[in-house]
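User: Okay, second chain of the day. Same drill as before: sequence in, structure tokens out.
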Amino acid sequence: MKLSLIVPCYNEEGNVEKFFDLVNEVFEGKVEDYEFVFVNDGSKDSTRERLRGLYFDKNEKKNIQVISFSRNFGKEAAIYAGLSRAKGDLMCIIDADLQQRPEVVLEMLEVMKSDDDIDCVTACQEERKEGKPVSFLKTLFYKCINLISEVDFVHNASDFRLFRRNVADALLQMKEYHRFSKGMFSFVGFRTEYIPYTVAERESGESKWSLFKLIMYALEGILAFSTAPLKISLGTSVAFFFFAFLCSVGSFLFSTALTAVLLRIMATVFLVGGAILLNLGIISLYLSKIYVQSKDRPVYILKEHLDYEETD
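Assistant: Same drill. Structure tokens below.
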């Protein structure tokens, strides 16, 4: 069976060639039929030139695809593009920075081969190397989203996973613009096995995930797979109005001075105003998603696609 390695790349000029060489070295004599599906997500460095160099200079096996976007559309769009272009019976999403090692892909393949009923093998980080604040926030995210989501999110499960064609076909049926792969894999179901792995050090460059981006990504997941914030909005509005009522009553019962009365009125106004703004803010987040989805814009725009099967 052919294995497709889907490799999202954003500003990875120092890693793509090392990644390519290492995969070929590790797979030698162990994986017979495989392809690289590099997705250049609008990189601002020379990543595209390096990938074109691999395609034109090191494509002896005729197993390299290079997909380049017109601009940066994000990792989720890159994964979607890779899924839609991959030719393999098995697919593996893996980063180009070599923190996710090809040796782990071999472990995944062994797990997959051990039982024909296994559709997906997902790597989970044994030990996180980020700082304690980031680790705490990620743990908090998984606890919160599992409380409010209709699907289960496995703690520390990564996008680094191997899966069969039927899983990829199910993911491609989901046409939403705002994509959240961790939730989508859970939503489509299929039998999934989880294996531990240790994240290696980056070979080159810096992580593209700042704390702000991680928080926004978590918010995307919550909005994509839970309507609980809308229900929370209703609950908070009831609570705020209840406290506003108490403050109003209190302003009449205990208004011994003009200042106290004014303060109570101000507290009431702030409570009511806060409730309104909170609810409008939550609702606007969902409406913004609906607005963008209604435009039916493409998940990504293609600049160039180099395909080994179309080479003369």
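The longest strand covers residues 157-164.

User: Thanks, on to the next one.
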